Amino acid sequence: MESDEREIRRLVATWMEATRAGDVETVLSLMADDVVFLLPNQQSMIGKSAFAEAARAMAGEKAPRFDGKS
Question: What average pLDDT is seen over the chain?
């Protein structure tokens, strides 16, 4: 496996593990400051700060469960 592919796989694994654990700060640390997310059925995008605010609001018992593979 090439070095780039290994690093990408490690990043995705870290993201998935942190998401499952509800570790918002680790997920945020993996994002560039200028990241944007496209939302379904909306014409606007959200940035890192809006993502962080929404993720923190859903933390704890309100947090959705995530799981997946790559």
Answer: 88
